[in-house]
């Protein structure tokens, strides 16, 4: 079981709610993913066309927790204000904190992120920070009050998969007791399995499911891959070896002379 800020979860997949072909397909994909947490971008959903009451009642009908997201915020002030609005709207202290530093790569402004995380943690928020895989930034976020870390594995929407597995492995090694969730950049179920095999606690994804040819089947495929990767990690993976090791016992083999 996974515990995030005191909430116990059986699913290790968190799913975004943007970019689906239709609300009905989004709902089916959420069900197929077996997720218990969906992210909702406050700015996108309150400002966007086609949102409103229908969207919220659909989300509510799915019996999942909502993790409001400060997606699209480019400054500390904007992110903090959006988080405060989200708390009012969703009646939750949870906030997925994004402070975007670059409009092309959508990479986090890690300095602004730490500052905003400190402000929000001091106000009683339970912060899920979208960060890079940098170890020092991770330490600063924990010092700022975060009890979960969400490093990227590649830029949002890129579908590239883990571009620096060594950095992810290093974060896992340094923070064995902190829930670590890979957020952003996963493109395939095998990418999700890879990060789960590294010992990550969960993954958060959106684009690879929402933009798939069949989002519902893809959601189910990701759910299976997350479970498989987690089970493999728990089962104890064999370390790669330089030399061959016979896998077939030779006792009893016929001796030819
Ligand atoms: C949905 C969300 O919260 C974002 O962090 C992001 O959209 C996830 O990244 P991908 O879209 O690359 O999966």
From TrEMBL:
User: Can you state which reaction this protein catalyses?
Assistant: [ThiS sulfur-carrier protein]-C-terminal-Gly-aminoethanethioate + 2-iminoacetate + 1-deoxy-D-xylulose 5-phosphate = [ThiS sulfur-carrier protein]-C-terminal Gly-Gly + 2-[(2R,5Z)-2-carboxy-4-methylthiazol-5(2H)-ylidene]ethyl phosphate + 2 H2O + H(+)
Q: Which InterPro entries match?
A: Aldolase_TIM, Thiazole_synthase_ThiG, ThiG
Q: Where does 1-deoxy-D-xylulose 5-phosphate bind?
A: 157, 184-185, 206-207
The entry assigns this protein to a family as follows:
Belongs to the ThiG family.
Q: Where is the active site?
A: 96 (schiff-base intermediate with dxp)
Please indicate if the UniProt record lists Transferase as a keyword: yes
Broadest EC class? transferase
Subunit relationships: Homotetramer. Forms heterodimers with either ThiH or ThiS.
Stretches assigned to the Thiazole synthase ThiG domain: 4-249
Enzyme Commission number? 2.8.1.10
Going by the UniProt record, its keywords in alphabetical order are: Cytoplasm, Schiff base, Thiamine biosynthesis, Transferase
List locations, semicolon-separated: Cytoplasm
Pathway the protein takes part in:
Cofactor biosynthesis; thiamine diphosphate biosynthesis
Domain of life per record: Bacteria
Task: Write the protein's name.
Answer: Thiazole synthase
Instruction: Extract one GO molecular function annotation from the record.
Output: thiazole synthase activity
What is the protein's known function? Catalyzes the rearrangement of 1-deoxy-D-xylulose 5-phosphate (DXP) to produce the thiazole phosphate moiety of thiamine. Sulfur is provided by the thiocarboxylate moiety of the carrier protein ThiS. In vitro, sulfur can be provided by H(2)S.
Is Cytoplasm set as a keyword in this record? Answer: yes
């Amino acid at each position: 079981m996974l515990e995030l800020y005191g909430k116990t979860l059986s699913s290790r997949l968190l799913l975004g709610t943007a970019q689906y072909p239709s609300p009905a397909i989004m709902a089916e994909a959420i069900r197929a993913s077996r997720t218990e947490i969906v992210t909702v971008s406050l700015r996108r959903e309150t400002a966007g066309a086609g949102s409103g009451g229908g969207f919220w009642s659909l989300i509510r009908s799915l019996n999942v927790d909502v993790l409001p997201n400060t997606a699209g915020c480019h400054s500390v002030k904007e992110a903090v204000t959006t988080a405060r609005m989200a708390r009012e709207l969703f009646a939750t202290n949870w906030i997925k904190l994004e402070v975007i530093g670059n409009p092309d790569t959508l990479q986090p402004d890690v300095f602004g992120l730490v500052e905003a995380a400190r402000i929000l943690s001091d106000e009683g928020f339970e912060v899920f920070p979208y960060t890079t895989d940098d170890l020092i930034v991770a330490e600063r976020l924990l010092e700022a009050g975060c009890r979960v870390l969400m490093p990227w594995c590649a830029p949002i929407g890129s579908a590239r998969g883990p571009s620096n597995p060594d950095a992810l492995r290093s974060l896992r090694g340094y923070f064995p007791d902190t829930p670590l969730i890979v957020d952003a950049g996963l493109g395939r179920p095998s990418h999700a399995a890879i990060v789960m095999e590294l010992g990550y606690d969960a993954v958060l994804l959106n684009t690879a499911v929402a933009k798939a040819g069949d989002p519902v089947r893809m959601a189910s495929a990701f759910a299976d891959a997350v479970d498989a990767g987690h089970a493999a990690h728990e089962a104890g993976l064999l370390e790669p070896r330089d030399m061959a090791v016979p896998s077939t016992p030779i006792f009893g083999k016929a001796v030819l002379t």
